[in-house]
């Protein structure tokens, strides 16, 4: 597995890094396990001070940290800064709230006495993280678990090695013990054969593809390790009427093209009631046509390149498959003839079940629009996907939109706004979008020992 920075805007390979040896991986696991035994005893208040310092470092260095994201995976500069700021907020959130979350709750046993369930640490947690939000995805795992008293081993995506290394460096600069958080440039085989089976490793969190999630879950299950999986998404964007079409279109473009269309929670399937279809789709296609790919280092750019040329070419194959089988291109549909991983923002209509675009996640700037008869058909189509991560429902009648939202099979549904994230809101999906939750009070529970402490009834 090659760890390398290849600028997706130019195709130039900037830096390469060596994959760790088996001996180095075993040493990292051993160091993390040894550190856990002392880190779990550090008072939560002291952990919180260090975590607040982490947040400060992210804010102090936001421009340099954002520039690394842009160089390695092509995120437009303004969006990269936004990711860094969100990460700082996550570290602050868990520094502020972990102690309260860990208190757990008091129970009233039917057998008498007093009982309390508290959150306790469990050991080493392995994170396997993707390239598309190279700091945010890590913070969702690291912040709650380090505050809980766990230690973290982090295997990042091979195309964001500099983002991986700088996060380890920041933990150390913030004052955390050296082995509380360790980056490992491991291969998939080393993760499966060395890291997950090690008795010190108590859980695995993966954000990535269905294929990767299934493989990791199988290995973890064989070794009796808990997993949290945040996998793909094909989020519905349901439009019930055209009364606020300008705002709805603006939200749709933002929701689909954010992060160059490479987010699990991007709006991907635009399901529009027939009375609103013509108006919405005409305006939406025109707006998407106006989204011009540009230099990701420019603060004004909204759509940059895809993460790699291979990823761009894979999306173009999905688009071509749809076109070959009768789909209509309403906007874009072509790759750009220049070095790098560039393509046009695209809208497809008339997509049918025999096309790959109907069932597969399109992880790039391609929106698929569908016409449906009524809200019931909209919900049926929304729920026909094997995924269930996020979703949005737009309508002037908020009560009606809320009723539809409650019927959508998804981990997160937003009314009159696109799927979003915040430190205090749980994040996760159902069906093939994964298991478990991150962020909010639930995020600290996933790899915690929910320990029951019972004392007998006083005589």
From TrEMBL:
Please name the InterPro entries in this protein's record: Ald_DH/histidinol_DH, Ald_DH_C, Ald_DH_N, Aldehyde_DH_dom, ALDH_GabD1-like, GABD/Sad-like
> Which Pfam families does the annotation name?
Aldedh
| Gene Ontology molecular function terms on file | aldehyde dehydrogenase [NAD(P)+] activity; succinate-semialdehyde dehydrogenase (NAD+) activity
Aldehyde dehydrogenase domain location is: 3-452
- Spell out the Gene3D superfamilies in the cross-references: Aldehyde Dehydrogenase, Chain A, domain 1, Aldehyde Dehydrogenase, Chain A, domain 2
> Keywords assigned by UniProt?
NADP, Oxidoreductase
User: Which family, according to the similarity comment?
Assistant: Belongs to the aldehyde dehydrogenase family.
Protein name in UniProt: NAD-dependent succinate-semialdehyde dehydrogenase
